[in-house]
Amino acid sequence: MARNRTAEEAWEALARAQTALMRGFQEDFRGEEVSMRVYDVLYTLSRCPSGARLRDLNAHILLTQPSLSRLVERMEADGLVHRCGDPTDRRATVVRLTERGREIQRRVGRRHAAAIADRVGGALSEEELATLRALADKLRAAQEGRGSVSMTVDP
After folding, report:
1. Residue 78 resides in a domain
2. Assigned domain for 147 exists
3. What pTM did the predictor assign?
4. Where are the transmembrane segments (predicted)?
5. Count of the separate structural domains present in the chain
């Protein structure tokens, strides 16, 4: 029973830390040319050189499938992404960055990376950062096969 309580406390601490960080990052995005949600899609696509199916993209974006579809439609209208049919599956849609989307992702990404370095790297030592990454990777890997969908992206 003590292990269950420890797991609950660890989860609560992790969730609260993530919430505090995300609130700070959302504040950072207030002055950016794209929202944090749009940046999340741009960043994820930047790690998928040949594009991503909409359903695979959804595995990495914290939005419902209909909300993501509407967001991608708006992003296409803004010239940030291009949607096309998947040549291997006529029912699927592939989303790719446009040159404009790639340029905005890089520019905003530099500022966001600096904020991450400040907010996360400024709070933890190199050793703690390595431990945090290893633990997060281990938790994520443990969820594979539990109904969680995963998409391979280039590191």
Report:
1. yes
2. no
3. 0.81
4. none
5. 1
3-state secondary structure of 90: strand
Give 46-52's long-range contacts (Cβ < 8 A, gap of 24+): 46/97, 46/102, 46/105, 46/106, 46/109, 47/153, 47/154, 47/155, 48/151, 48/153, 48/154, 49/154, 50/94, 50/96, 51/84, 51/94, 51/95, 51/96, 51/97, 52/94, 52/95, 52/151
Report if residue 140 sits inside a domain.
no
Provide the residue range defining the domain that includes 17: 9-117
**In the predicted model, what is the mean pLDDT of the chain?**
90
Whichever domain contains 93, its CATH number is: 1.10.10.10
The per-residue pLDDT for range 33-71, each reduced to its tens digit, is 999 999 999 999 999 988 999 888 988 888 888 999 999
Tell whether the torsion through CA atoms of 82, 83, 86 and 87 is positive or negative.
negative
Edge-to-edge strand ranges of the sheet holding 81-86: 52-53, 89-97, 81-86
Place of tokens 């890997």: 141
Q: Is residue 75 part of a domain?
A: yes
